Amino acid sequence: MQIEELSSRYGAYLSEMVRQSLTLEEFSRLEIEELVAYFELMAERSYEEYRSRKDMLPPENGPLSSKDEYLQILRRRWQQAEEMAYAVMTAEKNYADGQNRAMEA
């Protein structure tokens, strides 16, 4: 995937968010059409990891234990992936709508 292609399709802000959310390898390997499914899969995997770790980790004492911090990181990863999937899905719909209007004109 090229950053220029992504920027022209979704705009500079969202394309930068996508770029920052992916590793360099993921960014170069993925096609734009795969982004929504990829972020949805990331969210699903992050949720599963959060859920399994939440049940497996022993409780610790203290106001904010390392377990709590770890679970917060996992929860944040899960939520960010869901937000990216939604943002890309919305941008893709807007792009498709624009393409359809251009074809009608």
What radius of gyration results from the CA coordinates? 18 Å
* Distance between the first and last residues' Cα: 29 Å
Average pLDDT, all residues: 88
H/E element order = HHHHH
Largest sheet: none
Helix/strand-derived class?
mainly alpha
Which parts are unreliable, with pLDDT below 50 for 5 consecutive residues or more? none
Annotation, overall tally of beta strands: 0
Number of helices: 5
Name the helicity range. over 70%
Strand fraction band? Answer: under 5%
Please tell me what the overall shape is. Answer: elongated
Question: What secondary-structure arrangement, pairings included, does this model have?
Answer:
Blueprint: H1 3-10, H2 12-21, H3 24-29, H4 35-56, H5 66-104
Helix pairs in contact: 1-2, 2-5, 4-5
Tell me briefly what this model is.
By secondary structure, the chain is mainly α.
Could you characterize the architecture of this molecule?
The protein is mostly helical. The chain has 5 helices and no strands. The protein has helices spanning 3-10, 12-21, 24-29, 35-56, 66-104. Helix 4 (35-56) runs antiparallel to helix 5 (66-104). The model has no long low-confidence stretch (mean pLDDT 88).
Q: Top keywords for this entry?
A:
single chain, 105 residues, mainly alpha, 5 helices
